[in-house]
# Entry
Amino acid sequence: MSIEENLTDTSLVCFQTALLYTSSKGERRIRVHTLCLPVVTSLMDVYAGADVQAILCLLANMAVDRSVSSSLSDARDALTNAVVDSLSAYMSTASNLQQSSLIAPYSLRLFPLYILALFKQKAFRTGTSTRLDDRIYAMCQIKSQPLVHLMKIIYPSLYRIDKLTDEGAIHVNDRVVPQPPLQRLSAEKLTREGAFLMDCGLILYIWLGRSCDNNFVKDVLGYPNYLSVPQKLTQLPELDNISSERTRSFITWLTDSKSLNPVLQVIKDESPAKTDF
# Structure
């Protein structure tokens, strides 16, 4: 798309697209999207308004197409170049700023991190054995998932759930939903004394530390201790205690926001499936 007209005399521009499609019930529909954006004269204003999540998801979709039409290596190189080019352009524009190890606009401060996370997805990862079916499935998810769900796949949310309380909880349909703080996605945040839930969009992982409190194991998982928990556990029992109610309420709240119910998988500290987590 190109614009040949002079925009100096206007403060807003509007983009509009129309999609003609057939619904699952055979109905012909038209969906119209309209986006209004301000016209600015400074490149710094453009950077300030950048939507890093929208940029990431667009690049992920383009990388899938590049993988199919060219090669996986070319797709990865294109993603790397997108980060390098955007930050290089910003550095040349913001040459008056104090130099540091990484100069990036506030809106794009997570851009390199998100690209690194994208490289670890089955669709684009290298150096790790990946079945072709798994890679194609991951690519299809990138092409079909809406932005909110795709961001969960690329950069999941991590919570510690063995110490849930009602402090800061929200009320949803007469149900109290705990709100544990988000943890940084780093292995150093995992402790063997805790239990952590990672929301990956299509799947929910519960990582159980070897030294996790037996009260949590018994009240939430329904087993007397860590050693008695089976390797393949995919659901939580409904137990009559406050810890079980809080945990299930939080998981239900997470799943209610998704179009499809995610799969739940409990992973023990020494489990072979730990690499998936």
Remarks:
- The first helix runs from residue 43 to 48.
- The chain has a mean pLDDT of 90.
